[in-house]
């Protein structure tokens, strides 16, 4: 029983620490308001703070030395930043509500991303997948609690139980659930219509002509990119690079905001900061479908996108400044 109580306490500590960091970064007066106002980079910074606090707290409560607890905190900070960023980004596609199908699709993507992260941490694929999937799919249960602590506790129990059933640790699943709730559910307060991603192909076909025309205006939306992939015949498109913002984490650079889902990870010319031209396609990278780390997350999202979008021809995006 003790390990379950500790896991829930650690999850609550992670949420409050991450929430305090977001409130400081955004100037919001509550945790939920701060998560809704946060950018991707702010969510990742808060995730790092939450992961560090969770690692140190979990270490101390389970009898680890201060030095070992700090080491656990450092590891938690890294994976906390990644986890928060991924959960936030997934919510950016679907929002926190929608049809039953959209909710199921979101749960699958949370499961896939958490599976890759679990493998990168040395854990089991199945434990990561089921904790992420259950945390997202059963989020209405956790949201029914009247207090923030109650919501986190219910979510932690769901995620922890799923993790254990998948052969992993209850504690890991509990913290996973807290991150999914905070950086996905609470971070998106305006919700798309039910066909946001579940019925992509039908929506694209319905608005085909307008989307193909809009694809030529220098700023490419996700729907326009998919329409061009399906009906553009493989012809290249020109995008105004001045309209895009980028961030780099180590050697990985990516376009921020909703434009990320069109351009994703990019290569930047160090001489002028301009983005090199690249292909829009659904090509897998690496020799293993679920390669660990950033590549695995990219492959998981790419595979799902290919299923939803179905057929089309890759095209080159030419960035002009």
Draw up the topology in text:
Elements: H1 2-26, H2 31-37, H3 40-61, H4 66-94, H5 100-120, H6 125-137, H7 139-143, H8 148-165, H9 170-185, H10 200-206, H11 208-214, H12 222-231, E1 237-240, E2 246-249, E3 252-255, H13 260-263, E4 265-266, E5 278-280, H14 294-309, E6 315-320
Parallel strand pairs: 1-6
Antiparallel strand pairs: 2-3, 3-4, 5-6
Shape: globular
Gap between N and C termini, in Å? 60 Å
- Please give the oligomerization state of what you see: single chain
Largest sheet: 3 strands, mixed
Report mean pLDDT, rounded to a whole number.
79
Structural class: mainly alpha
Please report the number of helical segments: 14
The amount of beta strand, in percent, is 5-15%
**Using DSSP, what is the number of strands?**
6
Order of helices and strands: HHHHHHHHHHHHEEEHEEHE
Number of domains: 2
Widest sheet, order of strands: 1-6-5
- Low-pLDDT residue spans: 189-199, 289-293
Helix content: 55-70%
What Rg is obtained from the alpha carbons, in whole angstroms? 20 Å
Short structural description:
The protein is mostly helical.
How would you describe the overall organization of this protein?
The protein contains 14 helices and six strands. It is mainly alpha-helical. A hairpin with a 2-residue loop joins strand 2 (246-249) and strand 3 (252-255). Helix 6 packs antiparallel against helix 8 (148-165), helix 6 (125-137) packs across helix 9 (170-185) and helix 11 crosses helix 12.
């Amino acid at each position: 029983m003790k390990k379950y109580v500790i896991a829930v306490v650690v999850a609550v500590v992670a949420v409050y620490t991450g929430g305090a960091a977001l409130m400081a970064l955004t100037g919001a007066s509550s945790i939920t308001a701060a998560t809704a106002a946060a950018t991707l980079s702010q969510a990742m910074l808060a995730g790092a703070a939450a992961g560090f606090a969770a690692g140190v707290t979990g270490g101390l409560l389970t009898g680890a030395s201060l030095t070992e607890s700090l080491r656990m905190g450092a590891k938690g900070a890294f994976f906390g930043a990644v986890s928060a960023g991924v959960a936030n980004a997934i919510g950016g596609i679907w929002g926190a509500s929608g049809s039953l199908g959209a909710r199921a699709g979101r749960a699958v993507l949370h499961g896939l991303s958490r599976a890759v992260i679990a493998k990168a941490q040395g854990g089991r694929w199945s434990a990561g997948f089921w904790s992420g999937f259950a945390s997202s799919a059963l989020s209405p249960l956790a949201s029914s609690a009247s207090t923030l602590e109650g919501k986190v506790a219910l979510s932690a129990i769901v995620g922890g139980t799923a993790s254990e059933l998948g052969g992993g640790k209850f504690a890991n699943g509990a913290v996973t659930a807290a991150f999914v709730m905070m950086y996905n559910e609470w971070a998106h307060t305006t919700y798309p219509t039910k066909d946001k991603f579940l019925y992509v192909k039908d929506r694209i076909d319905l608005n085909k002509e307008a989307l193909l025309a809009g694809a030529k205006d220098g700023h490419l939306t996700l729907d326009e990119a998919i329409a061009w992939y399906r009906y553009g015949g493989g012809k290249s498109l020109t995008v105004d690079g001045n309209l895009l913002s980028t961030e780099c984490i180590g050697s990985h650079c990516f376009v921020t905001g909703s434009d990320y889902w069109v351009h994703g990870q990019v290569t930047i010319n160090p001489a002028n900061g301009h983005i090199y031209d690249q292909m829009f396609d659904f090509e897998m990278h690496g020799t293993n479908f679920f390669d660990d780390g950033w590549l695995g997350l990219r492959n998981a999202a790419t595979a799902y996108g290919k299923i939803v979008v179905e057929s089309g021809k890759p095209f080159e995006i030419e960035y002009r400044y």
